[in-house]
């Protein structure tokens, strides 16, 4: 099973300035279809491996169990990717225009993203030998990231209000301070209920990525040094990716800087997800190969080396 060859045209997707949220959704759907194709090919291999084998032969059950287990994992991943394919709209990723009020990401779609990402992490850590993503301890304090008033970058997540100043570059600094896995970790460490409502008081180290994606109408409440950079970056990624979400921007070229921050956050999230899925699929197919070959021993292996 050569998954990387099969899915080569669906891997390495990069969000650019003209990429829409729906484009990203189509990428998730396309990747899910590649998993479905892998599942179909695996079934064909199972049929080939059991042809001519007595139905009472224990090897047939071993082969069927190995294939069914692998197909279950692939199908679960496909379902979660299909869910991610439905959360966007026709707006650009990181949508931001001059002097624009920020707009919260849709509650329903945020819940859908949260459950899909949590589901993906659950299956890849269980079946793919993938390490659980770790949460970053970096905060918005200037001595934590470097630079003056970096905390103001969180104002890009204003809801129903403008940022009040040019903060796109500061938001970009926050996103740059964390890795993709830390953005993902901050999202799945949220609670589903955080997808509703907005931030009413001062943000803290406990304020989640989902809640930052919703944002708040008082921008100074968002710009708190205690807030976690991973949660803010996760909020930026989600608002940039999910239906209705728009980043708050100021005048001049702040809209370009704001969108750039959103695009970077989304690309970081996409890369870690893709890497996790690739590793999991390779591991699952390799395990199926080994079990099928063991069941057929001492017959000829039916699968070539997995790439």
Automatic annotation (TrEMBL):
Membrane-topology annotation of the record: Lipid-anchor
Cellular component GO terms, alphabetical: cell outer membrane
InterPro entries named among the record's database cross-references: Borrelia_lipo
Signal peptide boundaries: none
Pfam families for this protein: Lipoprotein_2
Functional description taken from the UniProt entry: The Vlp and Vsp proteins are antigenically distinct proteins, only one vlp or vsp gene is transcriptionally active at any one time. Switching between these genes is a mechanism of host immune response evasion.
Protein name (record): Variable large protein
Organism of derivation: Borrelia crocidurae DOU
Keywords from the UniProt entry: Cell outer membrane, Lipoprotein, Membrane, Palmitate, Plasmid, Signal
UniProt entry tagged with the keyword Ribonucleoprotein: no
Subcellular location(s) of the protein: Cell outer membrane
């Amino acid at each position: 099973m050569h998954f990387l060859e099969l899915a080569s045209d669906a891997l390495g997707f990069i969000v650019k300035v003209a990429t829409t949220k729906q484009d990203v959704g189509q990428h998730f759907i396309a990747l899910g279809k590649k998993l479905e194709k892998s599942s179909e090919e695996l079934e064909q291999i199972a049929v080939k491996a059991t042809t001519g084998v007595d139905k009472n032969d224990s090897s047939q059950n071993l082969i069927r169990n190995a294939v069914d287990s692998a197909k279950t994992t692939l199908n679960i991943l496909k379902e979660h990717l299909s869910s991610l394919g439905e959360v966007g709209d026709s707006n650009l990723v990181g949508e931001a225009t001059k002097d624009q009020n920020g707009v919260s990401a849709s509650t329903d779609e945020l819940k859908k993203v949260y459950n899909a990402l949590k589901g993906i992490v659950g299956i890849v850590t269980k079946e793919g030998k993938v390490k659980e993503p770790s949460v970053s301890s970096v905060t918005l304090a200037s001595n934590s990231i470097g630079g003056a008033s970096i905390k103001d970058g969180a104002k890009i997540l204003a809801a129903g209000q403008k940022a009040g100043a040019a903060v796109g570059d500061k938001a970009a600094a926050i996103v740059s301070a964390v890795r993709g896995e830390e953005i993902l970790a901050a999202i799945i460490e949220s609670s589903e209920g955080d997808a509703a409502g907005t931030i009413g008081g001062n943000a803290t180290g406990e304020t989640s990525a989902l809640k930052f994606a919703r944002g708040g109408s008082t921008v100074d409440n968002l710009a708190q040094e205690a807030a976690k950079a991973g949660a803010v970056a996760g909020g930026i990624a989600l608002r940039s990716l999910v239906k209705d979400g728009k980043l708050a921007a100021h005048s001049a070229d702040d809209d370009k800087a704001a969108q750039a921050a959103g695009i970077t956050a989304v690309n970081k999230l996409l890369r870690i997800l893709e890497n996790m899925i690739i590793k999991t699929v390779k591991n699952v197919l390799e395990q199926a190969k080994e079990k099928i070959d063991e069941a057929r021993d001492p017959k000829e292996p039916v699968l070539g080396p997995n790439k």
